[in-house]
Amino acid sequence: MSTKKRILFIANEMSPYLELTEFSEIVNHLAIKSNDNGFEVRCIMPRFGVINERRHRLHEVVRLSGINVSVDNEDYPLQIKVASLPNARLQIYFLENEDLFKRKFVFADENESWYDDNWLRTIFYCKGALETVKKFGWPPDIIHCSGWMTGLIPLYLKTAYKKEPVFGNSKIVFTIGQNTFREKIGPDFVKKIAIHASIKDKDLEPFKDNNNTAMFRGGAAYADAITFGAAKVEKKLSDEFSKVKGKKVLPFKADSDLTDYLQLYSDLAQK
Description:
Layout: E1 6-11, H1 23-36, E2 40-46, E3 59-60, E4 67-71, E5 74-84, E6 91-96, H2 98-101, H3 118-136, E7 142-146, H4 153-158, E8 171-176, H5 189-193, H6 212-222, E9 225-228, H7 235-241, E10 248-250, H8 259-270
Parallel strand pairs: 1-2, 1-7, 2-6, 7-8, 8-9, 9-10
Antiparallel strand pairs: 3-5, 4-5, 5-6
């Protein structure tokens, strides 16, 4: 049996597949460096339509087929594809739904109009990522979430998925990045986050503003450790989370030295 500690990266962008902010490249480097330093690594991201399937050699994972994700009393089929990260022996799993993700643009259309179902896409992705890990049967020691779209995952892990054995020993790292949109995520989004009876109104409080900042706030509020993924983040978030009692916090570093991240992973995995 492998004694390696396991790290799962859940992101909504990762170089070279999708590069929306500077942290996409850092996620790539973190995955590779973690793998090179003795961790067992897997990565999950959405398969947006802008990700070229042929160029990146994506192929369907048949053994993981057959998952349906329920959101707001509707079931949505989840397809899972996989690719090998270039120049690294790492598997990247792409979550796909033809209606929700297979579009020519990511979060807004050609006229820069916000997709009115981004609320649905977000809940689908966060829940789908956790259902995929259950299907893996691969218990991660560390789950590192980055990108606003992953902001619900720490909440779900501490509530709806709290009793799932595969997440029994998982510690959550959440990265606060730069704000990339000003729109509200969607009507009644905060109510629809409550996918399980274990999620109470008070649990939804960090998400109440229903925007980019709220997603980062909610993710950080329920994480075991917090990192800053950009030099310029929302001041409210910087003030609120730069020092949090009982949580390790890593400030943003512009250089490529990721030693502090590796130490953070090791420390959390030992707890």
